[in-house]
Design brief:
about 300 residues, mainly alpha, two-stranded antiparallel ribbon, about 75% helix
């Protein structure tokens, strides 16, 4: 009977290993296929259309539908790159202190209140669809900015505030897990040396949880950089350089979602949009590498 049990266990182990290997192999194949497909499409701008990388990355004129008798299509995308960078960075600068403060409050100060109310609320906010945030921004935030700050309301400021609200739950949740994972003994050792609670939080808890908090910030930045629908609904979608917080502008994701369906496959316009998608994919890979480097640094500490 034990021999039959051992044979069945070996069979199930082999099936489990085979299934896990197949799933891992499929994930690798899918990832490589996506990258190859986007890279093939995106590089067409430079290989087939013979456009320079300098013009694409540093040009500021976006008229991809302009006919050849008027100087040919212009595919300068610097305004979209700067728009994505400014909106994402300012959203992170606002949301990071709030998120870390909320995480400290939930874990170190009001544990029962944070565990029973705040953390479930944050998890609910993480699951809210982007279109809900965008619709609230469109109906509440845009009219408010237009009334009290001037302009149309569709602006970089509206995009920053919407993204701030969107990434705040993500950073808070990951930071909370990072602080919770710390052993309680380090706090007790700090208290035993005569430190107050705030000194313990500032001198012990935050430095120990720094790698996890940095990972949370990078995840929030990646979420903000890749967000499309909510930002598109409030930012104005004007292909201009972001020179003012109250000025309409565009991001990489918003211009792709707006224009892709209006282009002919293989045209310069379509290839330029795929080049923007390739750029966005490379930036996303960059964020993943940063997260892994931060995690590896924390592992060897």
């Amino acid at each position: 009977m034990s021999e039959n049990y051992d044979k069945r266990r070996k069979v199930f182990d082999m099936i489990g290993r085979t299934y896990a290997f197949i799933c891992a192999f499929l994930l690798i194949v899918i990832t490589v296929s996506i990258f190859y497909f986007v890279a093939t499409k995106g590089l067409s701008t430079f290989i087939i259309d013979k456009r320079s990388i300098k013009e694409f990355l540093f040009g500021t004129l976006w008229k991809p539908d302009r006919p050849n008798d008027q100087g040919g299509p212009a595919i300068g995308s610097l305004q979209f790159i700067l728009g994505s960078v400014f909106v994402s960075v300012f959203a992170i600068l606002i949301s990071t202190p709030l998120s870390i403060s909320a995480a400290i409050f939930m874990v170190e100060i009001a544990k029962k209140f944070g565990r029973n109310l705040l953390q479930p609320a944050m998890e609910i906010f993480v699951g809210i669809p982007s279109v809900v945030y965008g619709w609230i921004g469109l109906t509440v935030l845009v009219p408010f900015i237009s009334k009290y700050f001037g302009g149309l309301g569709f602006s970089m400021l509206a995009g920053i505030l919407v993204l701030t609200i969107m990434v705040l739950p993500t950073i808070t949740s990951v930071s909370t897990d990072a602080i919770k994972s710390l052993p309680w003994e380090i706090r007790e050792a700090s208290y035993a040396l005569g430190a107050t609670r705030w000194q313990t939080i500032r001198k012990v808890v935050l430095p120990a949880a720094k790698p996890g908090i940095l990972t949370a910030v990078v995840l929030g930045l990646a979420r903000a950089f890749g967000e499309a629908l909510a930002v598109q609904m409030v930012i104005g979608n004007s292909p201009s350089l972001p020179l003012s917080f109250l000025q309409p502008m565009s991001t990489i994701t918003s211009i792709i979602t707006m224009d892709m369906a209006n282009t002919v496959t293989g045209s310069t316009w379509n290839n330029a949009l795929w080049s923007l998608a390739l750029l966005l994919l490379l930036i996303s890979f960059g964020f993943i590498l940063i997260i892994r480097l931060v995690g590896r640094r924390s592992m060897y500490k």
